[in-house]
């Protein structure tokens, strides 16, 4: 292997991406070759593909962002979006054209990847390595590996590399037994008991399996399932040819097809071939090939033909329709709850992100009784799909993305609630919601803007100088910090909690995060998905000053970023589709209701 390629791969696959300066010194020649050498670039992508790392952003720190920085590329000419997203879109859109038994999917992936990489590199041709910005991306903390608290909450978490399949969709699904996976979870070998609903499982071998309850089945290997009871439909790509489903009296081997199968439940096993052909073995009898639009039943004397009835089995189109109906129902339920939230006199600010203009520059504060809280100004973020297909969200991808607004006043109690989708932790600290020193706004505001002068006066007379709701890479990884000064850490009181939503295996999932603060009781409580996950005490009982605020970022200047070696960068990487700020500490029951009515 090319020594440069070997070193670049070692750095990519390790956690050794500590600082931009280090990267510049050690691998800048390789990055230059990525730009200029088509063969080297193709070899790099091919090795990543063979190592199963093309989707590494979903299971580890998003190194695509770092590669994007090093190449000096933000988007393919004429398009919008980040390097990794565009690459994934091209890969997803590329047709599978199997060539060999071992990585049949490689040609399409390589073609899409090299095509995009070439376009990106051409667009960045004149950008030198000296043009790399100050973005410093720290590696993911390994402290979480021994976190017994997280293990108790989510005992089934596995590294994505341990799995043989992914649970991609569920409709009204309920599990029995010890293993109860959720959408997006990696599945290893093991038994699953589905008591209601329908699930869709996608095997890394290139097979889609739909299972309808009641069902008892076991994932035996990447190419084999044992169906004890239930009905299922199997859709197999050429890559997955040879996939096998066994029952108590049948063994069905795919020959490049789609088929449905029934087992147990007091009924005899049946196989219905939707497309292509399967090979069926029953008892000690010779294998029989069954072709499309044919069906058989296993009896005590052998196989017998039955009426072909595909409608009895789960189909992809049916699942899609069910998911849409389910999403519509949940969305309407959330709309009703949102109207009640808007009417609550203690709610100061409610952003639903339901703007009529798909390119809106402002977020409307939906509260009925207008408070001094303002509408939000959208900076840089892109509009995207929210918790449901019909709901809007703001997508945060770039270092300057944020929403600016104001909630002037001092408060003895506050509640922050937000529906967020975390797609990665790109630095040590990530901002959810933070107050901003009004002096920063002086650089941009009109001279006659009296709101800044008023805010400066409030800040001077307030004991509390800043409020920060953040995510970190530490074990206790969601924090609310109250700053009584701005000089050092001793000026801050911080209450931390451990949130499984920050774990890499939960990235890409919507989560309901909330925190309450009651300064009279000197208490802070953190919540995740309607349940308290941690609480702590404050030493001070000073009212909280909010005023100018930022959602999903922190307004650090370039000087501050440089002095902190990049640690002042706190940009959020993900999506947000609802935010609530209230002037009372909501009860656990209220926060649980907010989650129940809003969960996708």
Automatic annotation (TrEMBL):
Keywords carried by this UniProt record: Membrane, Transmembrane, Transmembrane helix
Pfam families hit by this protein: Laminin_G_3
One MF term in the entry's GO annotations: sigma factor antagonist activity
Membrane spanning stretches: 105-125
Presence of the UniProt keyword Transmembrane in the record: yes
Superkingdom, taxonomy of origin: Bacteria
Keyword Oxidoreductase listed: no
Full protein name: FecR protein
Organism: Allorhodopirellula heiligendammensis
């Amino acid at each position: 292997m090319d020594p440069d390629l070997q070193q670049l791969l070692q750095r990519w696959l390790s956690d050794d991406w500590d600082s931009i300066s280090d990267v510049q010194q050690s691998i800048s020649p390789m990055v230059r070759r990525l730009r200029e050498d088509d063969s080297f670039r193709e070899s790099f992508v091919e090795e990543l593909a063979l190592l199963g790392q093309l989707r590494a952003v979903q299971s580890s720190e998003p190194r695509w962002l770092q590669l994007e920085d090093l190449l000096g590329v933000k988007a393919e000419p004429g398009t919008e979006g980040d390097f990794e997203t565009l690459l994934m879109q091209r890969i997803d859109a590329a047709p599978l054209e199997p060539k060999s038994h071992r990585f049949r999917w490689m040609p399409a992936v390589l073609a899409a990847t090299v095509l995009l990489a070439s376009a990106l590199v051409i667009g960045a041709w004149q950008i030198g390595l000296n043009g790399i910005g100050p973005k410093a991306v720290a590696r993911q903390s390994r402290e979480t590996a021994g976190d017994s608290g997280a293990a108790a909450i989510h005992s089934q978490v596995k590294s994505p590399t341990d799995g043989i399949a992914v649970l991609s969709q569920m409709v009204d699904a309920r599990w029995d037994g010890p293993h109860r996976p959720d959408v997006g979870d990696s599945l290893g070998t093991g038994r699953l008991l589905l008591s209601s609903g329908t699930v869709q499982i996608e095997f890394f071998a290139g097979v889609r399996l739909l299972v309808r309850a009641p069902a008892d089945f076991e994932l035996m290997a990447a190419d084999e399932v044992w169906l004890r009871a239930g009905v299922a439909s199997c859709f197999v790509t050429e890559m997955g040819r040879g996939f096998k489903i066994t029952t108590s009296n049948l063994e069905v081997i795919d020959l490049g097809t789609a088929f449905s199968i029934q087992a147990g439940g007091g009924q005899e096993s049946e196989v219905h071939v939707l497309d292509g052909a399967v090979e069926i073995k029953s008892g000690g009898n010779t294998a029989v090939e069954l072709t499309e639009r044919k069906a058989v039943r296993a009896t005590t004397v052998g196989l017998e033909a039955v009426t072909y009835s595909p409608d009895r089995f789960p189909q992809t189109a049916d699942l899609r329709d069910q998911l849409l109906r389910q999403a519509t129902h949940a969305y309407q339920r959330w709309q009703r709850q949102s109207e009640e939230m808007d009417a609550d006199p203690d709610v100061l600010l409610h952003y639903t992100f339901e703007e009529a203009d798909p390119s809106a520059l402002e977020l409307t504060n939906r509260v009925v009784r207008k408070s001094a809280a303002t509408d939000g100004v959208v900076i840089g973020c892109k509009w995207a799909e929210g918790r449901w297909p019909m709901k809007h969200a703001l997508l945060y991808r770039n270092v300057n993305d944020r929403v600016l607004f104001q909630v002037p006043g001092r408060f003895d109690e506050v509640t922050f609630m937000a529906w967020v989708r975390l797609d990665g932790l790109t630095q040590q600290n990530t901002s959810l919601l933070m107050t901003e020193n009004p002096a920063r706004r002086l650089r941009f505001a009109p001279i006659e803007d009296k709101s800044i002068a008023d805010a400066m006066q409030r800040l001077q007379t307030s004991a509390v100088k800043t409020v920060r709701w953040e995510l970190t890479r530490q074990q206790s990884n969601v924090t609310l910090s109250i700053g009584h000064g701005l000089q050092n850490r001793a000026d801050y009181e911080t209450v931390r909690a451990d949130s499984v939503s920050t774990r890499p295996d939960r990235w890409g999932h919507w989560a309901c995060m909330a925190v309450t603060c009651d300064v009279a009781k000197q208490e802070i409580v953190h919540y995740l998905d309607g349940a308290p996950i941690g609480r702590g005490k404050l030493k001070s009982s000073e009212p909280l000053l909010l005023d100018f605020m930022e959602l999903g970022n922190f307004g650090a200047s370039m000087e501050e970023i440089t002095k902190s070696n990049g640690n002042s960068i706190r940009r959020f990487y993900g999506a947000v589709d609802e935010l609530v700020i209230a002037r009372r500490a909501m009860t656990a029951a209220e926060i649980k209701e907010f989650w129940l009515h809003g969960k996708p």
